[in-house]
Specification:
11 helices; alpha+beta; 4-stranded antiparallel sheet
């Protein structure tokens, strides 16, 4: 049943990826893959963690951002290539997600993706996870770790992969990088700082986001590594349309809102989690 659902969603993703230059409505996609739009919406959201509309929009804008940096095509031409009916619609959508207009983004010459092509895990084995499944990451885990980073790129605006890899190596060497696997797939990762008590990166495979893995990682962190101390992290600000649910997840885990920040030129907000009582 699970493998069949993954196969079905992969067909949907294939169709989307092959038609990113078109205006892709839910009804159009559903008709192409022979599902009702209601069934497709539910199946896609449950499996991928975001809606079809969100995935399409983020993928088209990512391809647009890539063309702005790596091509000499005009903005209106890029708008049409990315499925928009005109430059104004593209500019409005781009600014909503990237926080700057396309022309300014082009001037900066720094590409980063909102959403990379989604790949699914066909070999889900476990449904229950505990602290014992979380371990310190090793250098040999880096390929699996980076596969997961690319899947959860939607949670980390402005992430530069080269810079990230350099920092990841340091985290692994200093024993402050945690990983959880299911078979040969990394399904949870966390990098943290002993000094500041901050979570520098936490990612959970979208197919596993509703299985409580975030809580397992937090328990591991607070009971084995940063004991009796406040934990902090940052995420999107309220009402940022680029947020696919990360703020609400932090609140569900018990984090509280703190000060507004700007990180790498992007508006964010700091959240804190009080230490465990008796920790």
């Amino acid at each position: 049943m699970e493998n069949q659902r993954v196969t079905n969603i992969e067909a949907v993703i294939d169709f989307i990826e092959n038609h990113l230059d078109q205006k892709l409505e839910l009804e159009t996609i559903a008709e192409a893959v022979h599902y009702s739009k209601y069934h497709l919406h539910r199946m896609f959201s449950d499996t991928v963690g975001i809606t079809v509309r969100e995935y399409v929009g983020r993928r088209q804008l990512t391809e647009g951002a890539k063309l702005l940096v790596f091509s000499k095509r005009s903005i209106i031409e890029i708008a049409f290539i990315c499925g928009y009916e005109g430059q104004q619609a593209f500019t409005t959508a781009f600014k909503t997600m990237y926080k700057i207009p396309p022309a300014e983004y082009r001037q900066r010459q720094e590409f980063y993706p909102l959403q990379l092509r989604f790949t699914l895990n066909r070999k889900k084995f476990r449904r229950e996870f505990s602290k014992s499944n979380v371990r310190l990451a090793k250098p040999s885990d880096i390929p699996l770790w980076m596969d997961l980073v690319r899947l959860v790129i939607d949670g980390y605006p402005c992430l530069d992969e080269g810079d990230y890899l350099q920092k990841l190596n340091g985290c692994i060497e200093e024993k402050r990088a945690l990983i959880m696997e299911d078979g040969d797939t990394a399904i949870g990762i966390m990098a943290f700082s002993y000094d500041t008590g901050s979570i520098e990166f936490m990612g959970v495979h979208p197919q596993y986001r509703n299985l409580g893995i975030q809580k397992v990682f937090l328990d591991k962190l607070m009971e084995d590594y940063i004991i009796g101390r406040e934990i902090s992290t940052t995420t999107y600000r309220l009402n940022d349309k680029a947020d696919t649910g990360y703020r609400s997840e932090l609140k569900q885990l018990g984090f509280a809102e703190q000060e507004l920040l700007v990180e790498f030129g992007y508006p964010t907000q700091r959240f804190i989690l009080p230490p465990k009582i008796g920790g």
